Amino acid sequence: MKQGNRFWAWLVFGVGTTYFVLPLVATFEFSLRKRRGEYSFDAYRSVFGDPNFQATFTYSVVVAVFTILLGVLLVVPTAYWIRLRLPHLRPVVEFITLLPLVIPAIVIVFGYIRMFGSNSALPFLATARGADALLVIGYAVLALPYMYRAVDTGLRTIDVRTLTEAAQILGAGWTIIIARIILPNVLIAVLSGAFLSFAIVIGEFTMASLLNRPAFGPYLQNIGANSAYEPSALALISFAITWGCMSLIQILSRFAPRSANRPN
Amino acid sequence: MAEPFLSIQQVQKAFGATTVVQDFNLDVEPGEFVSFLGPSGCGKTTVLRMVAGFEEPSAGKILVAGKDITRLKPNQRNVGMVFQAYALFPNLTVAQNIGFGLKVAGMPKADADRRVAEMLDLIKLPQMGDRYPYQLSGGQQQRIALARAIAPKPKLLLLDEPLSALDAKVRVSLREEIRSIQKKLGITTVFVTHDQEEALSISDRIAVMYGGKAEQVGTPFEIYNRPATKFVANFVGTLNVLEGTVTDAASGKVRVNSQEVSLQGKLNGSKSGDTLSLALRPEAISLGRHPGRDSSLSGEITEVHFLGSVIRVRVGIGGSTVSLDTFNSPASPPPAVGEKAEISFSSGDMLVLH
Ligand SMILES: Nc1ncnc2c1ncn2[C@@H]1O[C@H](COP(=O)(O)OP(=O)(O)OP(=O)(O)O)[C@@H](O)[C@H]1O
Ligand SMILES: [Mg+2]
Description:
By secondary structure, chain A is mainly α. Chain A is 77% helix and 0% strand. Helices cover 24% and strands 35% of the residues of chain B. Chains A and B meet through α7 and α8 of A and β6, α2 and α4 of B.
């Protein structure tokens, strides 16, 4: 490679890194200045000590887990069936799963409130549990584009039809086929979809706030409006969580089983 | 003939408007090894998949041991199948793959383990139980696939071009292994291939298929030596075809390139003046006149290929070319291109193609 090229490549890389890292460093620096005249972790201590932090964070983690379960139960059989029996519908389904990227969450949630209000036929919003369930459903929709893509990509690496037929002729029914053959072979893909879902759910504000749920997103917003140093600490904590999820996906994909259908 | 074990009766299959299998009939005896042989797209896989239950016939019936299974689901048929693309479960070990059908059937673990070990011995891979499919060669994977198919003791074994993804050497050794295991277990087997040598070497009987129909069903010997149709004659083995004109139907005289041969009793129904396609296998022709060979034609040598123990010679006779093989003999030099030559054969070996 020519010397000049290399210089420009490094320059672009440097500018990009600065653009990305500088705000983080600045935020981190600021979050350490709660105590006058010296650096300290006081802001973090106060965040972790806040019972509201613990409650909302736990709530969001539980919601995330249910979102992932719902997403897997919905997406794995659907993507599998589309690949197996209805391949001509794939473009249509792919388009539908992309809709949540185009339709703002606020539109979806207002739709929910109108559809499932206390006076409707399906009064999800009449009880707290119902609202929780609706939140999970809403999050599953928001995570759909990521979940579907991840699972569909995973299914592409195995010969779905032949493996299904091989299992069928050995006497297996659909439950066994999905649970013992299909799911294990796309597990890594499912996990990466799951971590993406988790990252989305943990910091989500719009739906949680409008459905009036005690989630982590609205808590972040509330703290941000009412104190100085804690929001910076929280921003970094959220960032670390999201980043941790992404790294886990990377690590897990190293362990992806090599497929018999792609002999080395 | 004994009571057939597998009976395919007037089966048809259409995908939309195109009929890909028509009027397919075949009876397979218990313990028999039958091959479907035919060119790509002739419907071999489709028939096999109907027997397995992956496709439903548009018409006709399929019986196993006298019981109509036409509408049963694949997982209710107790049939073993080996696929072209190995199709081992990548997430399971070799032993788990072989034991899959046993586990699904609810066999107690100790019995299943014993059966898996037995199968690993049978395919001569006793140490491989703990490996994963990606750690095995193609030939090993296909042997595992065979073991997995026969572990639950199926009534019927179906193999769809199980060897076509393997290299030539492995292909030959594995086909012999499949045949010997099949004989040992006495399991009724249908084997799909488009490789005629494969079909001829391991089958009890062959169904030669073309355009969704069985053109001829017979032993390898019958298929090769007495092909029923032009297609079978051309598809199986190498064939020299000569055009001939019937000059005297009563005495069986046929003119080939202004030379006459006598085909008494083989013309069934042809009249004088008819044009016939006459065919000869290379091994039925010799160079020069030989005692016991009642017919001969003369021509000119156009090509000589020295292949070691065998010399393949091509002789031009009028507008046609005939291939024949002679053995190499160190004592005499091979024939040369351009020499005049005479070929001889028994008129009894000549096939009249209809
Ligand atoms: N699901 C299907 N839908 C439409 N047409 C099909 C389907 N399956 C097979 N066909 C057609 O049926 C014909 C026979 O196919 P089949 O797979 O049985 O051939 P084959 O003899 O096994 O060929 P090959 O040696 O290439 O495997 C082909 O023309 C194929 O295009
Ligand atoms: Mg085929």
